[in-house]
Amino acid sequence: MRKMLVKAVAFGLLSATISVANAGPDADKAAYQKYFQDKFPDTEFQDFANGVYSIDPASRAQWEEIEEFPPYEIAIEEGERLYNAPFKNGKTYADCLPNGGMEIAHTYPKYDEKQGKVVTLALLVNQCREANGEKALKYKKGKLAAILSYLNYSSRGKAIAIEVNGSAAESAYNKGKQFYYARRGQLNMACAHCHIDNSGKRIRADILSPGLGHVSAFPVYRSKWGSMGTLHRRFAGCNKQVRAKPFKAQSEEYRNLEYFLSYMSNGIEANGPGARK
């Protein structure tokens, strides 16, 4: 970790100054959130949940028009139908998810000591299916994105509250942190290059969004996709854009990355599902 951050500084990665190798999650989060609040002083803390629309008035105006008839409403309705449909054994998701699955999305991902890994809400849904004799759903879009839309909608307005307790959980968190700051692909870029250092700047016709609050709106309906997609679908897209081979959705790498990013956004109110360009 230390070597990685030193290398980042050597290449001019400004974001390395807000992520110290030996700092703990709390110190990381405080520095991360302060960085964005200082960089975008006119943006209210909670508004970072709205991504690029929190920092660019022109984009926000277009987004607010879309939100009058949000394209993700159909996904919420479909997700509710799928969620309540019984499995072949007569049970439903509510029988095996905490609190019946309602109002829990803002507390995920979690580090599961028994499984020895980070468990995302998407993974939990498929574990529930498999425990009831059903096949796992594909992780990037389709039925799972709809179910997650419904579950995340039930947590709207609740502050993201991710916990990192114990050495094993902190190890997973640190792996996610390292992934975020590590360069990859033919363009030799890290997630942080776009969403910390250059947040608010243009890349062609698009404005790079702040990293703070990134996870709060997922799943999202992207105009580019013409459909709903999960956070890990977006992770894969970002990797492709820097000409790196993406990892599989719900891989250890992406689950740890989600864990790190979600912890960085603690206190931001969950706002999913959402709509993006």
Explain how this protein is built.
This protein has 277 residues and is mainly alpha-helical. It folds into two domains: 187 residues, Cytochrome Bc1 Complex, Chain D, domain 2 (Orthogonal Bundle); 81 residues, Cytochrome c-like domain (Cytochrome Bc1 Complex, Chain D, domain 2, Orthogonal Bundle), CATH 1.10.760. The protein is 42% helix and 7% strand. It has ten helices and seven strands. The strands form three sheets. The chain has a three-stranded mixed β-sheet. Helix 4 crosses helix 6. The chain is globular.
What is the compact description of this entry?
The protein is built from ten helices and seven strands.
Name some characteristics of this structure:
7 strands; mainly alpha; globular; 277 residues; Cytochrome Bc1 Complex, Chain D, domain 2; three-stranded mixed sheet; single chain
What is the CATH domain class of the largest domain? Answer: Mainly Alpha
Largest β sheet strand count, sense and barrel closure: 3 strands, mixed
Name the CATH superfamily assignment of the largest domain.
Cytochrome c-like domain
Domain count: 2
CATH topology grouping of the largest domain: Cytochrome Bc1 Complex, Chain D, domain 2
Poorly predicted runs are 1-14
Helix content: 40-55%
Mean pLDDT: 93
Strand order of the largest sheet: 6-5-7
CATH architecture field of the largest domain: Orthogonal Bundle
* Category by helix and strand content: mainly alpha
Radius of gyration: 18 Å
The count of helical stretches stands at 10
What is the 3D form?
A: globular
Strand content: 5-15%
Order of helices and strands: HHHHEEHHHHEEEEHHE
Strand segment tally? 7
Determine the N-to-C terminus distance: 34 Å
